[in-house]
Design goal:
mainly alpha, 2 domains
Length: about 425
């Protein structure tokens, strides 16, 4: 009954922001679930025929932008207003996806995706800021829970339902879908979204850069981010090398047969096929189903051992890919990796809170996402170049995945050594 009252306590602006987040993230993950496959697929099959290395370069630029731009864009939105910033963000994203839909050269695809990434980087802090300003102590926890759930719901439904259908019509329709999915939010912003109350102490842009220098000078914090980013080097393989590996190395017939046997109970002659987009579906679906369970299990555990357990689970997940190309083993690897992600990452935020100075905890938490900048930059390039050399050229997928398992083990070792020799003696 109490939770029902909490749901009723949210304003129209809160639910508008949630809708924006759902469609923006759904559009983004819908595209990202197949982008790396589309870019390297032969032109005769409907792709663009780029090399894997060149795709790694694209991803190493656009993905870090999504993590680093919010530092500046959040302060600019506070100054110029959320609604104005949202108009700009949605326009850039929609145009970026639209241009990608009919771009065929490497440079135009790169620039189009760059346009999308800038828009997404501007958008990201505005929605979380809206949630913060439209909730209070009584409903903030539930509000942010709904916010994070909407992200994963978009990442689950769009690749599951829309991408397979649109792909059957033509790959460019996936990007048109994303253009429409973000473009219509201009109307939502114009007609329904209201500018939330301004904070009394708005952070000026010069202060943002001063804070950045302050944080970057703290070697303990930076060392933590660098070590933890090893896990995210592994994570970003889910949008590149895992997709290529699926398409080139895994026969998903056993999974297809099982799913179609189940669907046959409800419809005649089902012909469901597991494809690249379903990797994202499994990751998001696992989080939707199990995040609350995992969080309840580990809620009283200390951050560092829990982080290490999560990273170890992720390492096992990728390790399975090194030793088996069986379809169900592939699925198990994805699920175990997702369990590792949802175990490690929430506790990482707690860990940052522990190592941050008492008077600067909020500041440090704000910059803790730099793990994504490092992880996506290294992961995209390392994954693409190593894939070609170890899997394409040498046909040694075991060495490729064991390399990433080694990164996972080094990350665990680094955290243990950091905790033992840096924190204890600081």
């Amino acid at each position: 009954m109490r939770q029902g009252k909490e749901f009723g306590s949210f304003s129209k602006n809160f639910w508008t922001a949630i809708a924006m987040e759902f469609f923006e993230r759904g559009s983004y993950y819908g595209v990202m679930s197949v982008l790396s496959v589309y870019l390297v697929m032969a032109t005769s099959e409907g792709g663009l025929g780029f090399s894997k290395e060149s795709v790694g370069v694209i991803k190493s630029v656009i993905t870090p932008l999504l993590y680093i731009l919010p530092i500046v864009s959040g302060a600019l939105a506070d100054r110029f207003g959320y609604r104005k910033s949202l108009f700009f963000a949605f326009a850039l994203m929609s145009l970026g996806y639209l241009f990608t839909s009919f771009s065929t050269s490497y440079s135009t695809v790169f620039l189009s995706l760059l346009l999308m990434a800038v828009g997404a980087g501007i958008f990201k802090p505005i929605i979380s800021g809206t949630i913060a300003r439209t909730t209070d102590e009584s409903n903030s926890s539930l509000g942010f829970g709904i916010y994070y759930w909407s992200i994963n719901l978009g990442a689950f439904l769009f690749p599951l339902i829309l991408v397979p259908f649109l792909k059957s019509l033509g790959w460019n329709y996936i990007f048109i879908m994303a253009s429409v999915g973000t473009g219509w939010l201009l109307l939502l912003n114009l007609l329904i979204y209201k500018e939330p109350p301004r904070m009394e102490n708005q952070k000026k842009l010069i202060q943002v850069f001063k804070d950045m220098l302050l944080v970057l000078k703290d070697y303990k914090f930076i060392l933590t981010i660098v070590i933890y980013s090893g896990f995210w080097v592994m994570y970003f393989q889910m949008f590149d090398s895992v997709l290529w590996f699926l398409k080139e190395q895994i026969d998903m017939t056993p999974v297809n047969q099982s799913v179609n046997s189940f669907l046959g109970l409800f419809i005649q002659n089902p012909n469901w096929q597991f494809d690249a987009e379903h990797v994202t579906v499994i990751n998001a679906g696992t989080i939707i189903l199990l995040q609350l369970v995992v969080s309840a299990v580990v809620k009283d555990f200390k951050p560092l051992p829990t982080m290490i357990s999560g990273i170890f689970l992720g390492t096992i997940g990728l390790g399975i890919l090194a030793f088996s190309s069986y379809a169900w083993a592939f699925i198990a690897g994805l699920v175990i990796f997702s369990l590792g992600e949802m175990t490690a990452h929430p506790k990482f935020i707690s860990y940052i809170g522990l190592i941050a100075p008492d008077d600067k905890k909020a500041l440090y938490l704000g910059y803790s996402f730099l793990y994504g900048v490092i992880g996506s930059f290294i992961g995209s390039v390392l994954g693409a170049f190593s894939y070609v050399r170890l899997i394409t050229n040498l046909n040694r997928p075991d060495l490729f995945w064991l390399m990433f398992c080694g990164i996972g083990l080094l990350t665990i070792m680094g955290l243990l050594l950091f905790n033992r020799f840096v924190l204890k003696h600081a």
